[in-house]
Write a structure and sequence with these properties.
This protein has about 250 residues and is α/β, with parallel strands linked by helices. It has a single domain, classed as 3-Layer(aba) Sandwich (Glutaconate Coenzyme A-transferase), CATH 3.40.1080.10. About 25% of the residues lie in helices and about 25% in strands. The protein has 7 helices and 12 strands. Strands 1, 2, 3, 4, 5, 9, 10, 11 and 12 form a 9-stranded mixed β-sheet that branches. The chain has a 3-stranded antiparallel β-sheet with strand order 6-8-7. The N and C termini lie far apart (about 60 Å). It comes from Falsiroseomonas selenitidurans.
């Protein structure tokens, strides 16, 4: 017990330091721990190595830490939606360790499982394999990849309880569950905080043993949508005609 903190600043108190490694959940800006990221920005901690599938967008998520130049190195898979990221990288101001997306996920999962390294076919014979050990198994060539571990993991969950058990919702699940297992300390932000026993045990994605601290997001918390795609509504007469056709069918 005692895992609940009043706000992001207090939840991160004593955990942040210059030069540390942070895992940040999310895919695009779906499931990102945005409130915790903002608290990291306000702390002023710098020279960070951040492990994340991508770097958010220019004005949200990890893009905020790029603007303040608090990130020294990114270990990522996809960075195409962030102009600040590209500008700093091309100017030699940001170090990047690119990973195929599946390899990144497995490196994080391996770190959380205590596996120091593994072999994968992905990337053999490309720039991804440069400087890495390679081996042949049964006539196939493989690249050795190291597991990843962080000083701090920050994740976003749909629901959590006072013991730190977490449930993620749909695509916001993404990298959050594996990152929660692969850090010395995991801090979660949750949309709905419930009492122990109110979450169905079989629905829990992250057991509370992995989560040291969490905060409940305030009512009305806004979840950004990176790219909204909607269908245009048909004109009333077209909708009525379609409904008639379905009725006859």
């Amino acid at each position: 017990m005692g895992k609940i903190y009043g706000d992001a600043t207090s939840a991160l108190a004593g955990l942040l330091r210059d030069g540390m490694t942070i895992m940040s959940g999310g895919f695009g800006i779906s499931g990102i721990p945005s409130v915790l990221i903002e608290a990291i920005r306000e702390s002023g901690v710098k020279d960070l190595t951040v492990i994340s599938n991508n770097a958010g967008i220019d004005d949200a998520g990890l893009g905020l830490l790029l603007h303040t130049r608090q990130i020294r190195k990114m270990i990522s898979s996809y960075v195409g939606e962030n102009a600040t990221f590209a500008k700093q990288y091309l100017a030699g101001e940001l170090e990047i360790e690119f990973n195929p997306q599946g390899t990144l996920a497995e490196r994080i999962r391996a770190g959380g499982a205590g596996i120091p390294a593994f072999y994968t076919k992905t990337g053999f014979g490309t720039a991804v394999a440069e400087g890495k050990e390679t081996r042949e198994f049964d006539g196939e060539h493989y690249v050795m990849e190291r597991g990843l571990w962080a000083d701090l993991a920050i994740v976003h969950a749909w629901m959590g309880d006072h013991e730190g058990n977490l449930i993620y919702r749909k695509t916001a699940r993404n990298f959050n569950p594996i990152m929660a297992t692969a850090a010395t300390v995991t801090v979660a932000q949750v949309e709905h905080l419930v009492r122990p026993g109110e979450m169905e045990a079989d629905h829990i994605h992250t057991p509370g043993i992995f989560v040291k601290r969490l905060i409940a997001l305030p009512p009305g918390f806004e979840k950004r949508i990176e790219q909204r795609t909607v269908r245009q509504q048909p004109a009333p007469e077209h909708a009525a005609a379609a409904a008639g056709t379905l009725t006859k069918a």
